[in-house]
Amino acid sequence: QVVFALNQTLLQQESLRAGSFQIPYTTEDLIKHYNCGDLSSIIFNHDTSQVPNFINASLPAHERITAQEIDSYFRQELIYKRNERMGRRVKALLEEHPDKSFFFAFGAGHFMGNNTVIDVLRREGYEVEHTPAGQAI
Asked: Phi-psi category of 21—alpha, beta or left, where left has phi over 0 and alpha has psi -120 to 50?
């Protein structure tokens, strides 16, 4: 699986350099949607937007299965579990110091897709509000 993932990543990078493959959104798109609090946009709804996408229809069936297994592993290990850990850390701090105020700042990756840090905290009963860019807190 590691060799497959490496080969697919290299093929994608070669396609990007050759101009035959384009990322569906730019860094500017990410910044705009993040600043606007548009976390439900199509950009932020891809669980795998933070990791390489190995699944494509041109792969033979056995390679497509390998790609799906790797995608599932990345999603679970690199995204969902990380957000669970971050959410638990926030919750622990809030419960350990109920008399204090906190300001938590996260990178955009913690708000992408499903099972975000916000989702974790809301499942725990916390109310999370978005503060738009430029608005005083």
From this structure: beta
User: Residue 3: CB partners within 8 Å, gap ≥ 6?
Assistant: none
Digit-coded pLDDT (tens) for 76-97: 777 788 899 999 999 999 999 9
Please indicate, yes or no, whether the overall pTM of this predicted structure exceeds 0.70: no
| CA separation, residue 30 to residues 10, 43, 82, 109 (Å) | 24, 7, 20, 10
Give the Cα separation of 67 and 61 in Å (integer): 10
Using CB atoms within 10 A of its CB, is residue 62 exposed (0-12), middle (13-18) or buried (19+)? exposed
Domain boundaries, the chain: 1-124
Cβ proximity of 71 and 55 under 8 Å: yes
